[in-house]
Write a structure and sequence with these properties.
The protein is mainly alpha-helical and 76 residues long. It contains 2 helices and no strands.
Length: 76
Amino acid sequence: MKIKTFYRRFRDLTEDLEEVKLDIGKARDLMQKARSKNPDLEHCHHEDLVLKCEQRNKQLQRDMWRLQLEWLDYNT
């Protein structure tokens, strides 16, 4: 694999991780606002949104780890 390919994959993963972190923050804000307006209601939709964003974040972190391992294998 070429160095350019590694760099592109790294850059794409980094951008995706930044976007997911922003999405997690937005989803948590939405959940907090919904809870403050109606504390008696269940907010499953907002909780699911936060959970999906956190799962995506974990998957991207695993992908980044795999890419780092591939990079180490490539260099050794």
